[in-house]
Write a structure and sequence with these properties.
The protein is of the alpha/beta class. Helices cover about 40% and strands about 15% of the residues. α4 runs parallel beside α7 and α5 packs antiparallel against α6. The protein is built from 10 helices and 8 strands. An 8-stranded mixed β-sheet has the order 1-2-4-3-5-6-7-8, sandwiched between helices. The longest helix is centred in the first third of the chain and has 40 residues.
């Protein structure tokens, strides 16, 4: 009887050891896998679409720009500054979307300059001419934006200008969460932004790998924390509420890149900041991820054209939208 009991205990012990080894192995491989996944997902890259306006397409004499470089962590970021004729109303710092190059928002930049704003735009870590082996992770965009603000405070021609932010997608998240940092920023416009990095990563992974995303999600969150600590998964909405600064949240109802499940716009009901303005765009074509600032004709052209090479038509701005953004900035600066 004792022998049978002993054998049963030994068998149970072996099963428990095998189970423990399996769990530990899974955890170790998953942690390593998450680190590798981050390297792959946030690899060094840059995307320029055929329809995008570039500096070579415009009148460089009318719109001269100064090339700049500033540090963000161990990397030197590449940027440029556009200045209007005469006195400037404010400095607008542009934070781009994932893997977007320096000219991504050139139509808006030129419109801002025409209206008397100075504009600083830059490429995030690991993008374009900026240094970095990769883009690291979502929260890196916030760190890079803060580095741009820091640079502006040391530049003789910029440091006396009130600072406002304009961010799209990843940049929209960065512009929102940077409100939590002690930066001399008066206001921010966040276009097509998401609320949480972890939610964003989970949603993207779920679309690509299905149930595997559920299994690996905890390890992706852990890797995100290893990289960015307490800034790893800051909520954009929470930052907007805490700051009490003027923030314009812009989003489209047809956004399939940052859909309702993860967007700042979808959580607008949780925004308690009395200085927040919500702009919900439902107009066909303009309600997509990268079209809120475009005219109806430009947005329709991009949606229906298989080869949108007419840059002038593809980048026509919506005047009402741009006017509302400029008025928002001026009110914030004057206030």
């Amino acid at each position: 009887m004792n022998k049978k009991l002993s054998k049963s205990k030994n068998r149970l012990k072996r099963v428990l050891i095998i189970l423990l080894v399996t769990v530990l192995s899974y955890a170790v491989f998953s942690v390593a896998g998450a680190a590798i996944a981050f390297k792959f997902i946030f690899a060094r890259t840059a995307v320029v679409n055929a329809f995008e306006l570039t500096y070579n397409d415009i009148d460089n004499e009318k719109y001269p720009r100064d090339e700049i470089a500033f540090p963000s962590g161990n990397n030197l970021l590449s940027g440029c500054v556009y200045k209007p004729e005469g006195e400037s109303s404010a400095l607008i710092i542009v934070s781009n979307g994932m893997n977007s190059c320096i000219d991504r928002h050139l139509p808006e930049i030129l419109s801002f300059v025409d209206s008397g704003f100075t504009v600083l735009t830059f490429e995030n870590t690991g993008v374009g001419k900026s240094e970095g082996d990769g883009t690291v992770g979502i929260a890196q965009a916030r760190l890079d934006l803060n580095a741009a603000v820091d640079y502006a405070q040391t530049d003789e021609s910029l440091k006396n200008l009130p600072v406002v932010l304009y961010g799209h997608s990843l940049g929209g998240y960065a512009a929102a969460t940077s409100q939590r940092d002690e930066q001399p920023v008066r206001a921010a416009v966040c276009v097509s932004g998401f609320d949480s990095p972890n939610q964003n990563m989970y949603y993207s992974a779920k679309k690509r790998v299905g149930i595997l995303a559920d299994l690996q999600y905890p390890f992706m969150c852990l890797q995100n924390y290893f990289l960015f600590g307490d800034k790893a998964d800051d909520s954009a909405v929470s930052a907007i509420n805490e700051s009490q600064k003027p923030v314009m949240v812009v989003g489209g109802t047809g956004d399939d890149v940052v859909p309702d499940e993860i967007s700042i716009l979808n959580r607008a009901g949780s925004i308690t900041n009395p200085n927040a303005v919500i702009v919900k765009i439902s107009e066909k074509y303009r309600a997509e991820h990268s079209t809120p600032w475009l005219s109806s004709d430009a947005a329709k052209y991009l949606a229906e054209s298989k080869n949108p090479t007419d840059k002038s038509r593809a980048n026509e701005l919506d005047k009402d939208f741009m006017d509302s953004v400029k008025e928002f900035y001026l009110k914030a600066v004057e206030g």
